[in-house]
Design brief:
Layout lengths: L2 E11 L11 E8 L2 E8 L6 E5 L3 E2 L9 E5 L12 E11 L2 H8 L3 H13 L1 H18 L7 E11 L4 E4 L7 E2 L7 H16 L2 H19 L3 H22 L2 H16 L5 H14 L4 H12 L4 H21 L7 H4 L1 H20 L4
Parallel strand pairs: 5-10
Antiparallel strand pairs: 1-7, 1-8, 2-3, 3-7, 4-6, 8-9
Length: 358
């Protein structure tokens, strides 16, 4: 059976970058486990450039612009404003049926889709390799090489590297709800904003941090980044919440620290460090802090909220601490689960900052 290259490429706008004395850079290397990596720096990337245009949202009562693609093998033939790129191409030589290759060469779209589907099955390995290479180049040369991702594509090429299939995908569109503020809402907004102005500086500082991340999560298009950004506001209010319940313990701990300091022992510094480590180990977990907050708020559905938070916290820990890139983020894949996370965050931020029980 014939061999073809099944792969994945990322094309970056190398913002403000150039090569001394001009020209271009090409490199091909083995990555391991049968994978190869080609890196190109210059004005003529191997798989060309595609300018994708589409709306981000479907607004009620308005026509949405679906994806429009302008693809050229030579970027100079597009309207793209710059002409210096970094292209990273990860591929694996893969056997396919000769009949399938013949159909591809004849321009059969179904056959092309079949080889692209093979590439999609290798998504995890491709993306991990591309991220290692792009991050390494950013560290070794400069981050500006990898700041602006223009295209990412699953591709197929002949064994010699001639392109035979390429896939393009644009932004997904979010369908927005029609939102009408009634007269009561209009009248209550003014006093609501005035009360915010009367809040203490500490309260406003805490709100600024939490609500910054909430707004960022609402704008975020990447699923993992959205999840992490949504979780941070809860962490912010829980870190502030815990101290009020630990004052007696804190007071006693301060007394013990003073006794150690006043004792004059030559080991007092080591003893203080050991004691501080013990106190940190006694701090309540994030799950315990949320349960405490939920029971204090006593909002409807608090038991379900407590269980939901445990679920989200488990995913968050997997992302941030174990580093398992292949974790299945079912909470982010379905629209219903995404909304439930957002609703949980909004529900407790409204109560924490405004004592709203909606």
């Amino acid at each position: 059976m014939p061999l073809i290259q099944i792969g994945y490429r990322r094309l970056f706008d190398a913002l403000g970058c150039s090569l001394h004395a001009g020209g271009e850079f090409k490199s091909k290397s083995e990555y391991g486990n049968g994978y190869f990596v080609e890196v190109y720096v210059g004005s003529k990337p191997k798989f060309g450039l595609c300018i994708l245009r589409s709306d981000r949202y479907i607004v009620p009562g308005e026509d949405a612009k679906l994806m429009q693609a302008d693809y050229k093998k030579d970027p100079a033939e597009t309207t793209y404003p710059r002409n210096f790129f970094l292209e990273i191409y990860v591929y694996k030589l893969t056997e396919i049926e000769a009949s399938l290759l013949n159909l591809i060469e004849k321009g059969n779209s179904d056959a092309r889709n079949k080889v692209i589907a093979i590439a999609e099955q290798m998504r995890k390995d491709f993306i991990e390799a591309a991220e290692v290479i792009s991050g390494s180049i950013g560290l070794r040369l400069h981050r500006q090489f990898v700041l602006e991702l223009i295209n990412e594509n699953f591709v197929a090429a002949t064994a010699a590297g001639e392109q035979i299939a390429i896939q393009f995908s644009g932004n997904w569109l979010e369908r927005l709800d029609p939102v009408v503020v009634n007269e009561t809402g209009k009248q209550s907004l003014g006093p609501f904003l005035q009360e915010i102005g009367k809040a203490s500086l500490d309260a406003k500082d805490l709100a600024a941090t939490a609500l910054h991340w909430l707004c960022r999560a609402w704008r975020e298009r990447d699923n993992v980044n959205s999840f992490v950004s949504l979780f941070i506001p809860l962490e912010v209010i829980l870190s502030g919440q815990s101290t009020s319940h630990e004052d007696p313990t804190k007071s006693k701990a301060d007394e013990i620290r003073k006794l150690i300091e006043d004792g004059g022992s030559k080991n007092s510094k080591n003893l203080l460090g050991f004691f501080d480590n013990l106190m940190r180990a006694q701090s309540p977990s994030l799950n315990q802090r949320f349960e405490r907050l939920a029971r204090e708020a006593a909002l409807p559905g608090l038991e379900n909220d407590i269980e939901a938070f445990k679920k989200f916290n488990k995913i968050r820990n997997g992302l941030l601490h174990r580093g398992k890139r292949d974790i299945q983020l079912s909470v982010l894949i379905t629209g219903d689960d995404t909304k439930s996370l957002d609703q949980l965050v909004q529900k407790y931020l409204k109560w924490f900052f405004f004592r709203l029980r909606e």
